[in-house]
UniProtKB/TrEMBL annotation:
This is Uncharacterized protein LOC108883155. PANTHER family: POLYMERIC-IMMUNOGLOBULIN RECEPTOR, TRANSMEMBRANE DOMAIN-CONTAINING PROTEIN TMIGD3. GO terms for cellular component: plasma membrane. Residues 304-323 are annotated as: Disordered. Residues 28-128, 138-233 form the Immunoglobulin domain. Its main location: membrane. It comes from Lates calcarifer (Barramundi). The chain crosses the membrane at residues 254-278. GO terms for molecular function: transmembrane signaling receptor activity. InterPro entries: CD300_family_receptors (IPR050671), Ig-like_dom_sf (IPR036179), Ig-like_fold (IPR013783), Ig_sub (IPR003599), Ig_V-set (IPR013106). Keywords: Membrane, Signal, Transmembrane, Transmembrane helix.
Length: 344
């Protein structure tokens, strides 16, 4: 019983790592991984691993992701390596990291002695939003409107009838089939078996709306069920907000730049006018005071043409003869060094 429990635990761990090979009815190996995680693809056995190649779709030049003769190689999110076996053949492995929904597609792996002798194997990668194993995992999925959601449901048994239901499989079957694939409107279902046992049901809803919120069920026959809850909210628009913020910041920057430019121009213009005025009026030639009984007001009056001040020590006087003097008048002579006065 303990051995059985250990094997089941190991199998669940291999599911989480994405290493379990799923087989499509067309015999193509399928590998699944969770969005944001990694997936390792086992490309199979090749007679030689001298030249290794990994392509998105057919290996046309524009589809080649890795083409190398080294033992290991990496390009962006893709890496490739090979392991030599005792029988001379090589196993080729490819790892894709940071999975996105756009990674869900067909790939081609190839190996050979030379570029022209490479043999190819087709593989498929499915990127899921959640894996349900019935082992107490989180069953709540939060998505945005317009997105697609893909859930992988694991069953330890095989079944004939497969259903994808909302609320209850007795009331609302979204899509069902006895085959491997089915689609109805925005709902699809796909059935795969595992090389290590068990079976898998992939259910997908495209172009989600808020009305898609609710309880869903994966059903295999009538006895095996897996459920999950889906909550769909409006798509956020951070890019618009970011653009608006950037626009506002840019506008503020332009206004600040224009304002500073105007201030600088005003200052330079003022300086230019001041310089011109100084050149035309090099000195302040005089002070004129005007007073009254209450206060004294001072005026500074510039003169453009100021006569030079005399530097002679002698004073010049007007002389009047005694004969011409009026006896009734009084005359006085005022003298001051370096100035000229009239004598009356």
């Amino acid at each position: 019983m303990k051995v059985c429990h250990t094997l089941i635990c190991c199998f669940f761990l291999s599911l989480q790592d994405g290493n379990t090979v799923l087989i499509d009815h067309s015999k193509i190996s399928v590998f699944s991984g969770t969005k944001g995680g990694d997936v390792m693809v086992d490309c199979g056995l090749f007679s030689s691993g001298t030249t290794k190649i990994f392509c998105k779709g057919e290996c046309e030049p524009e589809n080649i992701l890795i083409n190398t003769t080294d033992g290991t190689a990496q390009r962006d999110r893709y890496s490739i390596r090979h392991e030599e076996r005792s029988d001379g053949r090589v196993s080729l492995y490819v790892t894709i990291t940071e999975l996105t929904k756009s990674d869900s597609k067909l790939y081609w792996c190839g190996a050979g002695r030379t570029q022209s002798s490479v043999s190819y194997e087709k593989v498929e990668v499915i990127v899921r939003d959640a894996l349900l194993t019935g082992n107490h995992e989180d069953k709540l999925l939060k998505m945005r409107t317009g997105e697609d959601v893909t859930v992988q449901c694991f069953f330890t048994s095989f079944g004939i009838s497969k259903f994808f239901c909302k609320d209850s499989c007795q009331e609302k079957v979204l899509v069902g089939t006895d085959g491997y694939r089915a689609q109805r409107d925005r709902y699809s279902i796909r059935y795969l078996t595992g090389t290590r046992g068990g079976s898998f049901l992939f259910v997908t809803i495209t172009n989600l709306t808020k009305s898609d919120s609710g309880q869903y069920w994966c059903a295999l026959d009538s006895s095996s069920l897996r459920d999950f809850e889906l909550i769909v909210t409006d798509a956020s628009v951070p890019s618009t907000t970011t653009t608006t913020d950037q626009s506002d910041t840019t506008t503020e920057g332009v206004l600040l730049y224009v304002g500073l430019t105007l201030v600088v121009v005003f200052i330079l213009s003022s300086l230019a006018v001041l310089i011109i005025c100084i050149k035309r009026n090099p000195t302040l030639c005089g002070l004129r005071t005007r007073g009254n009984s209450d206060a004294t007001n001072m005026e500074i009056t510039p003169y453009e043409n100021c006569p030079p001040v005399s530097t002679h020590e002698d004073s010049t006087y007007q002389s009047l003869s005694p004969a011409s003097m009026d006896q009734d008048q009084t005359y006085s002579t005022l003298t001051h060094t370096n100035n000229t006065y009239e004598t009356l």
